[in-house]
Design goal:
Strand content: under 5%
Oligomer: single chain
Helix content: over 70%
Number of helices: 3
Radius of gyration: 22 Å
Structural class: mainly alpha
Shape: elongated
Amino acid sequence: MCTKVRSQKSGIRTEKGIVKILFFIFCFLFSVGVSAQCAMCRASLGGDANKAQAEAVNDGIVYLMVIPYLLVAGIGYVIYKMRKGKK
């Protein structure tokens, strides 16, 4: 009877883990775009005349933000493969 209870508890934990992972994937894929800038960029690019420049600056900020995440993900993948190979 104890083994049945343990397997049920581990099944519940697994389901909660899957729900958490799916929630974070959902949040990552369906996030709201934000057009935030520093005060100096906002002042120099304000107005309708500089709309193309402002979009370019925002795209550059996003590009600079993505690179560290890709590096961390790559390092995490390499560590995962190394630990998986030892078992």
